Amino acid sequence: MEKKCLDCGRPLAGRADKKFCDDGCRGNYNNRRNSEENNYLRRVNSILKRNRRILEILNPDGKAKVTWKTLMREGFNFEYITEMYETGKGLQYRFCYEYGYLLLEDDEILLVKRKD
User: Fold this and answer.
1) Where are the domains of the chain?
2) pTM of the entire structure?
3) Residue 99 · residue 80 · CB < 8 Å
4) Distances (CA, A) of 1 to 4, 12, 25, 83
5) d(CA 79, CA 112)
6) How many CB atoms lie within 10 A of CB 21?
7) Which of 105, 95, 107, 100 is nearest to 58 (CA)?
8) Which branch of life, at top level (predicted)?
9) Which residue intervals of the chain are DSSP H helices?
10) What pLDDT tens digit does each residue of the chain (116 aa) get?
């Protein structure tokens, strides 16, 4: 039985364990196979970076208060964070990398920046 390239289907010559006719076919095959996962990761990273950028712009001094509507208007997506930190008093800070926020009463949000 003749072995064929997993990408293009051409007959293979050479080593018995060869799967692709060249590097181009190997790259095409692996890119196609991983594209769904890579697309998901790209989409999530894009959302996280946008969230971080919004927090950075609205919080230039490291601590600020804004309204929930302000974040929504800027395109902030509350479903995506990189970390959650709970204080001893039970307050939950949500972070997008080094920029974070704390939900307060009356639709207010405290923006913070983590110090290294």
Assistant:
1) 23-113
2) 0.73
3) no
4) 10, 11, 21, 53
5) 18
6) 19
7) 100
8) Bacteria
9) 23-58, 68-74
10) 789 999 999 999 888 899 999 999 999 999 888 887 888 899 999 999 999 999 999 999 989 999 999 999 999 999 999 999 999 999 999 999 999 999 999 999 999 999 87
